[in-house]
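Progress report, Aim 2. The chain analyzed during this reporting quarter is listed below.
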Amino acid sequence: MKRLIVISLGLLALVACNKRGQEPVKPDYDLRIEPVITKVDATNFESGDAIGLTVTRASGAYATNQKMTYDGSTFNGGLKWYEEGADEATLAAYYPYAETVPTSFTVAADQSAGTSSSDFLAATKTGVLPTANAVAMVFQHKLSRLVIKVTNNAGYTIDAMTLKGAIPTAVIASDFTATVDDKAAAADIKAYPADATTLYAILPPQTVALVVTVNAAGKEMTQRLAEATLVAGKQYTINMIVNPADIQVVLSGDIENWGDGGEIPADDSTPAVQFEEKLSDGYFTYDNVRYDVVKLKDGKWWMAKNLRYVPAGFTVSSDLTAVTAGVFNPLVLNADGSAAQFSNDDAVVAAQGYLYQAEVALGKKVGDLKSVAEAEALEGAQGICPPGWHVPTLDDILDLVGKGAGVTTRTDAPYYDGANGSIAKLNEDGFNIAAYGAVSIQDNTKTSGTFMGRMAGYDHLCSSMMCGSTYAGVTYNTAGDATSGVKNLQFHGFMPMTNKATEAEYTINGTKVSYRIAGPLRCVRNAE
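Predicted structure tokens for the chain:
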């Protein structure tokens, strides 16, 4: 939508004399602005709304960032015209008003109460002479707007709709052109529900693959959109279908009063992921799989089963030479107990979950991590855990079992028995942990993995390495030389060990896990 604003300019003097030789007239007019077209998401301006106006003459600025406040019918800032009535001026105005002419603008992260304060508009007009008549200026939207159209097949009341992955800050040029600030961090933007079927959100122009999250009826459903370029002054529609178990989302354009933004498809590679949390009943459902959860003596909720979610774009592998597969089938002992092997049996997968290489567990693809800084930034990442849960950090591990690799033992941890973390104590409280084996791939130069977990003399797998999110160490292709490139990264994870005579002696401590090792994943709930 373009907005037409009428500016009424008072005169102190029109000219010293005009072509007809008339004497100058000196009416004492205030500069007033009368809005003719309404705002984006309201029926009219509200009292107290303000714009900033700059008036520039050939001789310099006449008024800079003059605040003009709406009183219910017009904008008024008490500004009067200059006396030199034959001098042309350039008028530049923007909304919403700021104490200084903005060089950056950040949309609200929570737009659920309305998008008005996040809608940056501006207008410029040159060659303006002092006049008693109104001066019309066309205000243009400098950001992009999203309209979410909901088809609610489930009949749910939508509690919230959030857009994830977008940068909320724009750099504002002197001509009020807005471009995304690529140095700013991405943020979650909560949309404004205009009614039961329409929501709005405003974002800076940018190229982004948005993730749409819907909270309804105690469920959180997520859909990733294909990468799209949002253009200033354009508006795009997200057509969202809410079904009892999932959502479908398409991003398109062609909305009244804004420029046509074109059409952008949903990302077919990432289908909607259903998530429903029932902590009071001790479980959540994620991608149509139920997982038991338990609140342990560390005060945190933990999964009591290993994750068996396959992220979009991955195929579960049973090939030791597939060193970048990302996701592997679980391990079992073979018939005579002489070796470990993969199993794709549904019952085994349900009981043990899949084995994940660290980058995949942390929401990346194998090969994405190329530096220590990138690894450090993943501490506490959601990764492939459900919304509101994350891959365990070193603190999560130590708060639970007390002991880790190369760190000070927390002897007050609830499941530390004086020597090690105790599997028996954890399982008494419902953690249901065991040793599940792992696929050992020592570093990114290896072309084949080996099975970890089988120990002679035992009728079960005896060790495992489980995924964590806190960076633990690095080796380079040339020792000590970061410029030679990363050879291996390590994260702090769990290491269950069941190579003891009795279950009471089984241990679970923290350990450093090479990022190409594939191990099980237990997610922990974010702190409230």
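The two ends are 41 Å apart (CA to CA). The CA atoms of residues 283 and 292 lie 4 Å apart. These observations will guide the mutagenesis work planned for the next reporting period.
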